[in-house]
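lol ok so funny story. i was supposed to be doing the assay writeup but got distracted and ended up predicting the structure for this chain instead. priorities right. anyway since i did it might as well share w the group, maybe its usefull for someone
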Amino acid sequence: MALITYSDVFSFFGTDASKQTAADQSRVTNEINRQVAMIESRIGRKIQPTYVSNVTLDYSKNCTIYGNKLFLADIYRDLYSITSLYENGVLLTESSEYEDDGDFYLSTLNGTITRVGQDWSLDQLAIKLSGNVGIGGASGPLESFNLYLIQAVGVTLGIWDTIIIYPDGSVGSQKVRSLPKETLRILDQYMQKVFI
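and the output, tada:
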């Protein structure tokens, strides 16, 4: 699932159809992918829904455990569904209501998995999970990322022009060379915060 496509970029900047060749489309698509990877690396989170398989949750590596609470970290903080969860080789079942004999429940609000009726094992390599992660959950990333991506691609590839009216009344254009402060703040609000 793509966050944005070359069509979104061309449309946002009003790019002339003559400048939308297959080579231009490819160049914009490659830059979108590069920007997504840079953003995910910078904020420490996945902005696109991503399936993770057989991940070992290890204390202080990618989670913190306090009794029956397992606090997810890194990209796993945005876990929004669990397809399988094992503890010491035993498959656990998700609890969906009071006293349904489930073993755990996931809180997507604060990135915790709560063990029902007992504490989590502190043994190394004891907990493995598979599931889906991503800031926007199953519905995908937030619209603010799309705006950031479009503008970042436009600046990087030099396709973002701004109109200038000179003192003599003539009109010209100039390339936008850096992202506006408001756009840069979009990423700051999603930076992974570590509370260990």
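Residues 50-133 form one domain. The mean pLDDT is 89.
back to the writeup now i swear
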